[in-house]
Task: inverse folding
C-alpha cells in the first residue's frame, strides 16, 4: 500500500494482471472463431497500454477520433479504422494520414458522404444499422447499393461493411446478448452479400461491441471483431454478466476527506470530475451509483457505493442508506472506486498508474485526449 | 460563419460578449451589497480567461484542485482559497505553494484535519453545512469551536468560515433560491459569531453558489461570495431562472455526420465525450436532454435537443419526438450545443475558442486539467 500512498488523489489505476487476463480471454475467444480482433482504442486511448497488449504495432486497431488515429500512427500503427462516420471537413486530415503510409479506413452511411469521399482513394466501410440504436443503413435498404456505387464512382474503395450493436448494453441475460450478437452478425453478412452481388469485392465484414464479442458463438462470414471496453471491463459489463466484478482492471484511487456520520457518509476527493457523470448502471437491476467502493488493496467493501458526487466530492455510503453500516474509514483512508463505464471514467484522466503484480507502481501510461 | 468552418469539430466556443456581460452583472450585484466576489475558477479553469475578466492577477480566487492553485499562482494570483477539504497527503504540496508567496487558504471540517494542519501556519476556513447536501459542520455543532481550538493550538490560523449552498440547484423559483441564500448567509454569520465568542478573530465569512449569489439581497456579516458557473451560465441555471438561455456564453460546435430520417434524427460528432454525461436538467421541469441545439450563429433551433449520446455520436431530435419536425440539416451542417452544466462540458476540452463580437476567432484560451 505504501506505493499507493505516494500517489496524488484522485488517480487512475490500471491493474496489469487483470488487464492482460481480459485481453487474453477475448483474443482467444475471437481467434477460436476464426476472426481477427481489431482492438478499439477509444476506451484506453493509450499507445503504451495498447502496445503492451499487442507486443508490437503490427495489429489492426479502431479509433473514435482522428486525434487517436494520428497518435497511434505516430506510434507505428498502420492499419487503422476510424469507426465514426467522417464529417466532410475531416476528410483532408484523414487523407493526409493516408498519404503518410497508414491504411486509414473511414466509415459512412449516406450518399452525401459517399460523394464527399470522391477523389480521396480511401478505403471505406459502409455502416450498417443492426439494432436501431444509432447510425447506419439497414441491411435491406436500397440505399446500401446506391452508396456503394457512389463510393466506387468517386474513386474510393468499397472495403466492406461494419456495424456496432450498441443495443447489447440494454440486453438482459447472456442469451439475449448472444441473440443480439447473431443479429449483429447476420446484418453485416447479409449487407456484404448484397454488395458482392452488386459487383463490389467488399472484403471486410466488421462487427463489434464488448457484450456481443464476448458471447458470440459463430462468426461465419465475419472477418473482424471490434471491441474496447473489455480490456478494463466495468460495472455496466458486470451487470450484463460480461465479466465478474473482480475482473475490472480500472479503478480510481481516492482519499477520505471528511464525514457526515449521522448520515452514514464518508466524503472523498473523487467527485464526478474523477469518476465522470456516467450513471450507466442506473438502468440495470443493480444500480451502483457512481461506483463500487473497494479498499486500497482492491477488495470490495461490502455494499458501499459512491451514492452522490459533486465536482470534487464523492459521497460514500452503504447501499441500504443505513448510517450504522458505514465502516470507520478515518480521514486520509485510501479507497479504490470501480467505474460504471470505463471509457467515461478513464477520459477524466491524463494518464494511468500501472499497478504491477506485486503491488508496485513503476510507470505511467499516457492517454490521448481531444479531437 | 467561415471562421467556425475552419475549426475542427467538436470544439468548445466561448462568446466573449456574453462572458463579460455575465461577469459584470454578478460583480456589480455583489459589489452593491458591499462584498468581494471571489471567482471560483473551477468552472472555466483557464488563467487567460480569468485574467481577461479581472484585468490583473490581483483579485482573489477560489480553486477546486491544487493543480488549479499552482497554475494560477504561476500566473501571478496570490490570494487563493482551495475550497475543498484538504486530504492530509496534500498538505505538503499546499505548504510548498504557501512558501512560494501565495496566501493559500485551506478548508476543513473535522478534528482529524485540524490536527493534520498543525505546524503548517496555513490560514484555515472551517466549512459549515448550511443546507445538508454535502460537507461541513452545522453552525450550532459543538465540534465547531473544538475544531477552531485545535487549529489554533497547532499554529495554523482560524481565518474564518465558509459554506456552499449547493442545494440551491434543487430549488424551484427565485423566492426559494433567495430563501436558501439567506439560510446560507445566516449559517456562516452565526458560526463566525460563535468562533469570535470563543476568542478567534475569524475575519473571513465566505458563502457562495451561482444561484444564491444571484438572488441574495443582503450580505450583512458576509465578507466574500464565491461563484463560478455564472461566467458561462448553462441550461441548469436557465431552468432555475438564474439566467436566460441567451446569456449562455459556452457552446460546443458540432458537425452533422448523418441521419436516420424515419426517426427524425440528425447525428453529430459531439457525443458525451464532448458534451459530458451531465444530465443536470433531467430533474428540472424542462429536461434539455444532453443540450439545446442552436445554429452556427448561436440561434436556438426551436425545440431541437440532443436526445441521446454515445461516445462520439450525438443524436439531435425534435423535443416532441415527431420525425416530421426535424429540419433538413444536411451532412456537414455546423450546430452549436448549449450545455446542461458548464463545469462538466468545459472539462471535456483542452481549450476554448474565443468568439469575438464580430464573429471572428482570433485566439484560444487553454484550460488546466487533472489534479
Result:
Amino acid at each position: 500500500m505504501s506505493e499507493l500512498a505516494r500517489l496524488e488523489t484522485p488517480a487512475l489505476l490500471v491493474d496489469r494482471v487483470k488487464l492482460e487476463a481480459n485481453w487474453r480471454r477475448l483474443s482467444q475467444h475471437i481467434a477460436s472463431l476464426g476472426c481477427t480482433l481489431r482492438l478499439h482504442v477509444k476506451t484506453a486511448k493509450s499507445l503504451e497500454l495498447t502496445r503492451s497488449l499487442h507486443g508490437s504495432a503490427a495489429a489492426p486497431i479502431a479509433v473514435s477520433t482522428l486525434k487517436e488515429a494520428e497518435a497511434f500512427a505516430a506510434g507505428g500503427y498502420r492499419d487503422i479504422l476510424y469507426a465514426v462516420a467522417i464529417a466532410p471537413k475531416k476528410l483532408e486530415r484523414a487523407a493526409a494520414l493516408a498519404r503518410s503510409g497508414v491504411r486509414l479506413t473511414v466509415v459512412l452511411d449516406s450518399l452525401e458522404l459517399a460523394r464527399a469521399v470522391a477523389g480521396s482513394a480511401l478505403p471505406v466501410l459502409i455502416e450498417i444499422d443492426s439494432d436501431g440504436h444509432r447510425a447506419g443503413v439497414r441491411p435491406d435498404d436500397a440505399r446500401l447499393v446506391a452508396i456503394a456505387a457512389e463510393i466506387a464512382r468517386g474513386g474510393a474503395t468499397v472495403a466492406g461493411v461494419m456495424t456496432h450493436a450498441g443495443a447489447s448494453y440494454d440486453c438482459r441475460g447472456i442469451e439475449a446478448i448472444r441473440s443480439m450478437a447473431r443479429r449483429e452478425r447476420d446484418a453485416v453478412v447479409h449487407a456484404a452479400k448484397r454488395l458482392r452481388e452488386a459487383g463490389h469485392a467488399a472484403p471486410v465484414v466488421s462487427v463489434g461491441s464488448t457484450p456481443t464479442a464476448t458471447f458470440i458463438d459463430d462468426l461465419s462470414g465475419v472477418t473482424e471483431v471490434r471491441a474496447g471496453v473489455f480490456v478494463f471491463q466495468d460495472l455496466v459489463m458486470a451487470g450484463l454478466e460480461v465479466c465478474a466484478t473482480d475482473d475490472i482492471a480500472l479503478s480510481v484511487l481516492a482519499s477520505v476527506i471528511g464525514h457526515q456520520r449521522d448520515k452514514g457518509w464518508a466524503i472523498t476527493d473523487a467527485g464526478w470530475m474523477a469518476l465522470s457523470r456516467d450513471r450507466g448502471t442506473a438502468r440495470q437491476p443493480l444500480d451502483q451509483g457512481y461506483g463500487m467502493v473497494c479498499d486500497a488493496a482492491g477488495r470490495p467493501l461490502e455494499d458501499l457505493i459512491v451514492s452522490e458526487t459533486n465536482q470534487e466530492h464523492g459521497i460514500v455510503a452503504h447501499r441500504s442508506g443505513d448510517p450504522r453500516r458505514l465502516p470507520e474509514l478515518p480521514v486520509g483512508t485510501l479507497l479504490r472506486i470501480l467505474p460504471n463505464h470505463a471509457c467515461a471514467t478513464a477520459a477524466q484522466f491524463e494518464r494511468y498508474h500501472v499497478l504491477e503484480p506485486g503491488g508496485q507502481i513503476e510507470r505511467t501510461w499516457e492517454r490521448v485526449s481531444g479531437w
User: Anything to note?
Assistant: The mean pLDDT of chain B is 97. The radius of gyration of chain B is 22 Å. The longest helix of chain B spans residues 174-197. Chain B has two domains: 2-12+249-366, 33-231.
